[in-house]
Amino acid sequence: MGTMLFTIQALTPIRVLVLAVSMAGVAGAGQKGVQEKNKRPAKDSPLKQITNDPTLPRVLLIGDSISIGYTLPLREALKGKANVHRPAANCGPTTRGLQQIDAWLGKGTWDVIHFNWGLHDLKYLAADGKSLGDPQKPGNRQQVPIKAYEANLRRLVKRLQKTGATLIWRQTTPVPDGARGRVAGDAVKYNAVAVGVMKENRIAIDDMFAFARPRLKQIQRPADVHFTPAGSKALAEHSAPIIAAAIDPRSGLRSSIAAVTGLLEKKDYVTAINTSVLPETLERILKGRTLGQLAERFSQKNAGVLLEVLKSIGDVQPSVAATGRVATFVLKQAIGSRTKISFEKVGRYWYIRN
Fold this sequence. Notes:
Shape: elongated
Structural class: alpha/beta
Number of helices: 13
């Protein structure tokens, strides 16, 4: 797989911003906003929860301050294509992930989850177990040793798989020479373990490490794991097409309409019926005939009208039910006997309702 890019437009440095906000869950459609200990995120903060557009797919970013940095530019890159959410917090090491993952996932459905843990796992803590430590000082240790990291990743992947979302693992970005509390080269070791887990589970990999490594002087801060604003934007631009390619067209209303339109234009009526008719309706219809027979009848009586209807609503704004799961387009003028067409979202996908 390729790698991913994101930008940040926050007015304050990432680390200051992260310290100002408490741990919390992702706020999605119908979910309560995250409660913070000190203050609300600034208006343009990547930690500020977004208003969900129910007609678009839902993407969840899970990650540390590197992902916080590329959240805003990634949202911009996928504007009109996906709702890009993230927890209102730095997701830290895998140990924090195990504690908070259910809250971050919430009760809604996700179409794509782009996730990473690593930089906080491999960092060294002082003897007090809290403050950043010198890797060379006796008694200091990594926050999550590599064997525990692997075990934690396996548990987290198992939980993420239960969502039914398409999963994309994002490789941990490089640790440069001189970075406090970390050892250059450790990201390679932790990434190797992560790759093994992801391959076992057939999870796509966004190799952001490979993308960033040859251009660190241009995009990363000196002797610091964090990236410049321009560097975060580069990371976002790298990852945006990877995420976009992982989104099933049926999970977005407009993309679903475009997909069915394309199938009708190609006269692939069997696939058009399979992907656009409500599952319960299709099951009922097929009790009396085969799919091939249904497709033949559809091609003779309804396909042309439906294609014309779908093409006519390209610039029409739908009315969306309060549930966010039914959308109705009123035609500018009747086509045959049709004056409107409705779509319903069942699970993650949109279907033609009438």
